[in-house]
Write a structure and sequence with these properties.
There is one protein chain. With 462 residues, this protein is mainly β. Among the domains are: 117 residues, no CATH class; 37 residues, no CATH class; 37 residues, no CATH class; 45 residues, no CATH class. It contains 2 helices and 37 strands. A 5-stranded antiparallel sheet has the order 15-16-17-18-19, with no helix packed on it. The chain has a 5-stranded antiparallel sheet with strand order 26-27-28-29-30, with no helix packed on it. Strands 11-12-13-14 form a 4-stranded mixed sheet, with no helix packed on it. The longest helix is centred in the first third of the chain and has 7 residues. The N and C termini lie far apart (174 Å). 12% of the residues are buried.
């Protein structure tokens, strides 16, 4: 193309024509001298004369079909005095950097002094942009939203292998999402440079904070965490389906530290090891070693308590206390201990099957110390050694050495012994000392007290 109105072959520089067709472009003839023109469909590059920075009219526009001249059509300045004599160019654009001694390496490759509109796709670092605005391939720092201009500090976006980065200058800077304009933005989500994330707070101190110290909940998978929906100032955890209820939560803690473990009505609380029940709470009963407790404490296995145990007692003084000083009973194996079921203020012991009877207990003691050993009608009381009867009481008879006494005192032995001699020797048959039935001895006599008085027999040697 030569001068004003010259033709330009399509094959020469089709990229120039395509990029700038129907667009106003400015060409710097030489440092400080500018010409302006438009590429039309008719392959013309129409030039208007412009004054250079020294106010001289340019008369030598370049022919962009000449590679040698085209190589010089580059710019190193952004301030020119246009033909109309105004102070500086305020519209249009400059492309390139003139390879001259006065050129700076930091001079812009694209400088838009006013508004710019791109009807096609814009690529930076790529000649074949896929999206409307593309930063091309490769890795590194891609786009700055804020740039200190020192080549070090900026905030924006970068790319590494399989990693897309949102970059801030230092750990004291935040990334936030919100609504409104920049100066008065309402922050909804904040990512701190130190790795803390805040939702509903701009100053998270933990790795994740979601509306801290408020009655709100977060849902993670099947879990609802935070607020149970009705109880204010409680921290709650529940299944997603149980959120919003004050009866079906799993774990609850009040601000004073009170903690509650809970289950829905008819369900159980399980304490597990390796996902296997070790203790359960069901219907108010506690089961250890059993998943179906039928009493308040149901232990299937051994139990050990190193301290004192109170059942019905908040301050046991003994190793085991079960409702002390009350008319209740405890059952241990086949034994019933405590209350016999009919006699108040008595301590009783009986077989499990005889509990609740005032006639079939085994041992009874009243609060005044009175003690009773008892057996059911027709049964015997045995006094044993090595599980062998030594004395029995049966039908009102006492047997020593026999289990079937036939008299009030039935001694099955070849002798009996009265260890001490009588201390008050009767002086006559009518002596008032002693009781009917007494047997005693002294030197020379054996004494028997009958209903008619004392009788004695002389002891003689042999």
């Amino acid at each position: 193309m030569e001068g004003n109105g010259a033709t330009c072959a399509d094959r020469s520089h089709p990229e120039i024509k395509t990029l700038f067709q129907h667009k106003e472009i400015w060409i710097e003839n030489s440092p400080g001298c500018l010409a302006k023109g438009v590429i039309f469909d008719g392959n013309f590059f129409n030039l208007e004369r412009m004054r250079d920075i020294n106010n001289n009219i340019s008369t030598n526009p370049y022919d962009i079909s000449d590679p040698a001249q085209l190589a010089q059509c580059t710019f190193n300045r952004n301030s020119y005095r246009p033909f109309d004599g105004s102070s500086q160019v305020s519209e249009g654009f400059a492309v390139g950097v003139l390879p001259a001694a006065s050129a700076s390496a930091a001079s812009p490759m694209l400088n838009v002094g006013g508004n710019a509109a791109v009807s096609g796709k814009l690529g930076v670092g790529t000649t074949n942009p896929f999206c409307n605005f593309s930063l091309g391939g490769g890795t590194g720092d891609k786009l700055a939203l804020w740039d200190a201009g020192d080549g070090v500090n900026y905030g924006g976006f970068g790319v590494q292998s399989n990693l897309y980065q949102w970059i801030v200058p230092s750990s004291s800077n935040d990334i936030t999402f919100g609504y409104g304009k920049s100066a008065g933005l309402t922050r909804n989500v904040t990512f701190k440079g130190n790795g803390c994330v805040g939702i509903g707070t701009a100053t998270p101190s933990q790795k994740l904070e979601v509306y801290p110290n408020t009655d709100v909940a977060a849902r993670i998978g099947k879990a609802s965490i935070g607020y149970c929906g009705t109880l204010s100032n409680y921290a709650a955890f529940s299944h997603y389906s149980k959120a919003g209820t004050n009866t079906d939560y799993a774990l609850l803690q009040y601000s004073d530290g009170s903690t509650m473990l809970n289950t829905s009505t008819g369900k159980k609380i399980s304490f597990r090891e390796n996902n296997s029940d070790k203790m359960v709470i069901s219907g108010g009963n506690i089961g250890i070693g059993t998943a179906t407790p039928v009493v308040r404490l149901d232990v299937a296995g051994d139990a050990k308590i190193s301290g004192k145990l109170g059942i019905g007692s908040t301050a046991p003084s003994q190793m085991l206390e079960v409702y002390p000083n009350t008319d209740v009973a405890a059952r241990i194996g086949k034994a019933n201990i405590g209350y016999c079921g009919a006699l108040s203020d008595y301590a009783a012991f009986s077989h499990y099957s005889k509990a609740g009877s005032s006639t079939d207990y085994a041992l009874l003691q009243y609060s005044d110390g009175s003690t009773m050993l008892n057996t059911s009608t027709g049964k015997i009381i045995s006094f044993r050694e090595n599980n062998s009867n030594k004395m029995v009481i049966s039908g009102g008879n006492v047997g020593i050495g026999t289990s079937t006494p036939t008299t009030k005192l039935d001694i099955n032995a070849d002798r009996i012994r009265i260890e001490s001699a009588i201390t008050t020797v009767p002086t006559s048959s009518s002596d008032a000392s002693g009781n009917v039935g007494d047997i005693a001895y002294s030197t020379g006599y054996i004494y028997v007290k009958t209903a008619s008085g004392w009788r004695r027999a002389t002891l003689s040697t042999f």
